[in-house]
Amino acid sequence: MRELAERLGRAEGALPAYVYDLDGLGAHLAAVRTALPPPVELFYAVKANPDPAVLRVVAQRADGLEVASGGELAHAADGVPGARLAFGGPGKTAAEIAAAVRAGVFRFHVESPHELRQLGAAALAAGRPADVLLRVNLPATAPEPRAAQNASPGSGARLVMGGGPQPFGMDPVLLDHCADWLAGGSRAAGALRLRGLHAHLASGLGAAALLGSAGRVLDFARRWCARNGVRNPEINLGGGMAVDYLRPGARFDWPAYGRGLALAARAGETLRIEPGRAVTAYCGWYVTRVLDVKPSNGQAFAVVAGGTHHLRTPAAKGHDQPFAVLPVAAWPHDWARPAAAAGPVTIVGQLCTPKDVLARNVRLPGLRAGDLVAFGLAGAYAWNISHHGFLMHPEPGFHYVGTG
Ligand SMILES: *Cc1c(COP(=O)(O)O)cnc(C)c1O
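^ thats the input. predicted complex w/ pyridoxal-5'-phosphate below
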């Protein structure tokens, strides 16, 4: 990574750039796989990073991809033909559902009774059965106190997507409506095969908290599936494995999580997970150059090329993005090189907004204009969640290390 970053730094106009370490991604995925017991299937949530090269590496080692829009569906089907796709997410349009049925999607994660009926109509019209998991919004799934302890400040605000009122999934009473309709004998219902339940309740949890959540989901799903005659149920436990942005060397405890799932699994069941962030975050770097360094009212600012319109993650999650400085000796001008003094420095981008902050008050004595900064943990929810059009700066380049 470092060698490529320094090479890009010497090339005219090559920075800012994203660098994806495909070999690192492949090795990470292999380790994740090893930690998961056989009944657990690993899907990858494409919304974390849909880069085509990243998807190819992931698809080689995962059991499938979870897509959350017609756009992601078309992109994944095009980029990794033959990959098993699960189509989830709220607000699927009739056109998206019809296209997904025609494309032979592996599983539909259904978000509402209305969506189920639309899917039934589409499957009937296409003459092609569709396989369904109903997405449940479990009541009383407020994370336990230990979940809060488990999530360090660096993992950022946890995104809670289950429990209280949510646009995601269905209350148990709506699940029962779905089951009644499926059992009602209509031709549209006959075009659907109910395989089990899906739950993605929160993001940013440690292994212990996530296992606690999985236990509650399994408990509910087993009873619900037994009551509704779903044999050999599939239970999708969602994603949400934490990435700790304050401790970039830390990793979600996949071995502990895998051991917990092995204990929880029962014969005949398929357990499936669909992480995004904890799969690809570590393989991405956003490499840029310090354009200027200056003091302001007792604080120092380093302005880098690009900014949060390329890497929105720290602004979105409210953390300092971890980084490494790659010093550059050359200085082409005949005036003094702007440099940071001993005090803290705030690293900002080129946008005309005070929100364009990548890292606040970091110790960087000697950081100079012309040095390179490589921001890590930029492989998930980074480029693709950023507001690229704002201020019309050029887009970053994309580069890859290895082939995965
Ligand atoms: C976003 C999302 C995921 C992935 O979440 P991560 O926190 O990136 O692991 C999985 N499933 C669903 C339904 C999601 O919305």
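DSSP finds 13 helices and 18 strands in the chain.
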